[in-house]
Amino acid sequence: MNKNIVLCGVGGQGTVLASKLIAQSAMEKQIPVMSAETIGMAQKGGSVFSYLRMGDNLHTPMIPKGSADLIIGFEPAETVKMLPYLKEGGSVVVNSCATKPVTAMLSESDYEGDEMIAYLQKKVKNLTVVDCNKASVEVGSPKVVNVILLGAAIDTGELPISKEDIKKALASRLKPQLLDMNYKALDYVAMTGK
Amino acid sequence: MKTKFLMGNEAIAMGALAAGVNVVSGYPGTPSTEVLETVAKNNKGDIYVEWSVNEKAAMELAAGAAYTGARTMVTMKQVGLNVASDPLMSLAYLGVKGGMVVMVADDPGPISSQTEQDTRTFAEFAKLPCFDPSSVQEAYEMIQDAFEYSEKYNTPVFFRPTTRVCHAYASIDVKDEADYKVNQPEGFVKDTSKWVIFPRTTYLAHLRMEERNTELKGIFSEYGKNQIIPSGAGSECKKGIASHGISFSYVSESLETLPQKPDVLKVATPFPFPEQLALKFLEGKDEVLCVEELDPVIEKALTYVCGKYHLPVKIRGKFTGDVVAAGENTCDSVKESIAKFLEIELPKASVDTSDMPKLPVRPPVLCAGCPHRASFYAVKQAMKGKKSLFCGDIGCYTLGNAMPLDMVDTCLCMGAGVNITQGIGHLEPDTNCFAFVGDSTFFAAAITGVVNAMYNQANMTLIVLDNSTTAMTGHQPHPGTGVRMMEFANGNRPVKPEDIANKINIEQVLRGIGLTTVETVNPLELDKAIETVARVAAEDGVKAIIFKSPCIALCKKEKVATVNKEKCVNCKKCIRELGCPALVTDEEGHVTVDVSQCTGCMLCSSVCPVDAIALK
C-alpha cells in the first residue's frame, strides 16, 4: 500500500519538521520512505513544499500530479496551489490562517484566506479546516502549528502511522519539557472536533 | 548492512567515508553544501576536512593531497567548477595517485543558481570520466565506484548529482563501519617528469588520455549502473527511451502507469559514453526518445553512435523539440513527453483546477531584522538624487534587488560586482559607483578586484556587508570568522589550541592593499550609517565602508518592536520603504508588527516620521 503526501506552506512554518516526523515514524515500522523538500534561497519567505512517499517500489521522491492521498496545507493559498497534486477522493488538512507575502502590501498580489478556503470546500470532499491561530493560542505556543496539523492529518486515516508513533518520534527529537504541549497539540483537532 | 534515512548529499558523504576518503575540501554552494558538512559531522578525527577560501583553492588542495596517494574529494556547485576549472583542466593531464573525486552538484531549473550548465558536458571538455547518480541509494554506491575507477586509472573523476538527488531523502542500505575501506597514503614521491607540467608532458599525457577514454567506453559498457531495462518478454515495442539521473526515476514512474513498455537505457557514465551498450540497446529500434535535463548529452552520443554504425534509428529529444530545452523535468512533464512519443492519450486531471483563484507570488525576501536591509537603505538615503550605480554580488544580499529597496543594479557571478562597477565607472565618470560584497564572497572572489581598482585608479566605494558568516548556504565559517570547519562541526569547541585560526581582518586587508579610507559602521545605527556613506562616497579614489552586524538568523531574539496606535498616522512609510516581513497590516488596515517575525532591529523606528514605533 503506497501513500503519497504533500506538505506545503511558507518558509519558516515548520513543514520540514512535520515531514521528518512522519518519515521517522514510518521508518520505525519498516515502511520504505522517500521525500523531497525546498532548500535554499526559496526558504526565505517563499513557497515551500515537502513531498513524502511511503511503500514499496518507490522510484522517485517527486510526486506526479493527481496522485497525492493527502495534502497537509500550512497556508490556504499555498494549499490551493498544490491542489492539482491531489488524487480523486484524496484528503486535505488546511490551516485557515493566511500568511500574506510582503509584496502583497506593495503590489496587486493581495488575497483573502477565506476565498481560498471556500475554493477548497468546493473542490475537496474530505477537507479538514483548522484555525491554527486560535488553536495555537489554546495549546499555548505558536511553534506547535505543525504538530496540530499533523494530528489532524492522522485523524484522516490516510497515513499508515498512529499518534502513538508520532509521540515516539517527538520524544526522540524534543526536550522533555516540551512534550506535554506537543502531545496536546497532536490531539487538539480530535478533542475540539474542528 | 543497516538502513538509514539519508539526504542524497548525506548519502554521498557516507559513501565517501565508506570508500576511505582521507581529505575533503570544498566551498559552500546550493545544492552541494551538505556533502562536506556530513563528512565533518561523521569525522572520527582521521579525515582532514576544510572549507577552503574558494573552489580553486579547494581543488588544488585536494589535488596535492591526492599526489600523496590519499583519497580525496572536493565539493562544489556547478558554477564553482568554473572557478576551479583552471587547476582541473591541467590536473586532467597530470593525473593523481590516490583516488580523487570532483563532486559537482548541478542545478536544473535553475532553482538557486546563475547558470544551467551541465557538468556532463564539462566532463567531455575536460576529458575526465563522469558519474551521474539517479537516486539516493545509487549515489551512495556510485561514489564508492568513482573512487575505485579514479584510483585504477590515476585520474580525477567527476561525480555530478543534481538538486533533486542531492536534496532527496530516502531510506537506504549503508555499510557498517567495520566494512569501510581503510586507505593509508604512501606519501609524496618526488618525480618532476610526473608532477611538473610542461608542453611535452602534456602532449604525451593527451595521447594517453584519449587512449584511456576509448578503453573506458568499453569498460563502462560493462559497468553495472549503465543498464538496459528490458520491456519484458514478448514486447513488440520498437521504441526505446534513454535517460539519466533523476529523470530516469521519472521515466520509471511514468512507465508504471502507461500501457506500452519500451526498453529503457539508463546512462550512469555520460562520459566516456558506454558505446557498446548503447549499440546493443539501439539494435532493432525504430525510434528512441532521450529524456534529459540540461544538455542533450545522451541524445548527441546516440546520434553519433547511429551515424558511426549506420543504424536507421531516429533519435529524439531536445534537438527535435520533443523535450523542453531548458529548466528541470518533472514526473508530469516526462510523462507527457513519453505519452506523446508512444502516441498515447493521457487521462484528464483528477481534480479540475482550471477555475483556481489568483494566487499570491512569494519572491524570497531578506529576513526580518536582516542587517543588509539597513545597509542598503542607508546607501539609498545617502545617495538620493545623485547619479549612482549599485553593483551587487552573490549571497543573501542579492535579495536587495527586490522592491522596495531596489538596490541591486547588476549581479553576475562571485566577486564580479567590484570589477563591473569599475568598468561602468571608467565610461561614466559622473556616476557614484558602488560595489556591495558579502564577507565570505570578499575572501572568495573580491580581493583581486579591489587590487585591480587600486592599481588602475578607479573611483568607487566598496561596501562590505559583513555579517560574520556565509549566510545564504546555511552559515558556514570563513576566513574572517576565525573558526575552521572541524572546530565548527564539533560545536565550536576547539579540540586543540592549533584548531583556532587567526581571524583575517577585512579592514586590515583593505588597508594592506592601500586604501586609506576604510570605515566600519553598524548599519542599524541608521543616521550614522547614512552620514558615513555620504561623506565617504564624496571622496575620490577607492574607498570602503564595512557594514558590520551579525546575521540575524544566528542572533538570539531579545525584544520586539511595537506600534503605538495613538501616535501612528498609518502613513505606511515603514512598509513602503523597508519591505520588512515583520511589518504587516491588521484586519482594519493598520500597520502592526508580526511579533513572531520581528527581531527588534528597530530600523522601522528610525524611518517612522511620527516616532510611533518603540521597543516592547
Written description of the protein model:
The complex is a heterodimer of chains A (194) and B (616). Chain A is built from 8 helices and 6 strands; from the N terminus they run E-H-E-E-E-H-E-H-H-E-H-H-H-H. In chain A, helix 1 crosses helix 7 (163-173) and helix 6 packs across helix 8 (176-192). In chain A, strands 2-3-1-4-5-6 form a 6-stranded mixed sheet, with helices on both faces. Chain A is of the alpha/beta class and 194 residues long. Chain A has helices at residues 15-28, 76-82, 102-106, 113-123, 132-139, 145-155, 163-173, 176-192, and strands at residues 3-10, 33-37, 47-54, 68-73, 86-95, 126-130. Chain B is built from 21 helices and 22 strands. In chain B, helix 1 runs parallel beside helix 6 (136-152) and helix 3 packs parallel to helix 4 (78-94). Chain B is globular, with a radius of gyration of 27 Å. Chain B is an alpha/beta fold. In chain B, the strands form 6 sheets. Chain B has a 6-stranded parallel sheet with strand order 3-2-4-5-7-6, sandwiched between helices. A 5-stranded mixed sheet of chain B has the order 9-11-10-12-13, with helices on both faces. Helix content of chain B is 37%, strand content 16%. In chain B, 53% of the residues are buried. Chain B has 4 domains: 2-197, Thiamin diphosphate (ThDP)-binding fold, Pyr/PP domains (Rossmann fold), CATH 3.40.50; 227-341, Rossmann fold, CATH 3.40.50.920; 371-548, Rossmann fold (3-Layer(aba) Sandwich); 561-615, Alpha-Beta Plaits (2-Layer Sandwich), CATH 3.30.70. Chains A and B meet through helix 1, strand 2, helix 2, strand 5 and helix 3 of A and strand 8, helix 10 and helix 13 of B.
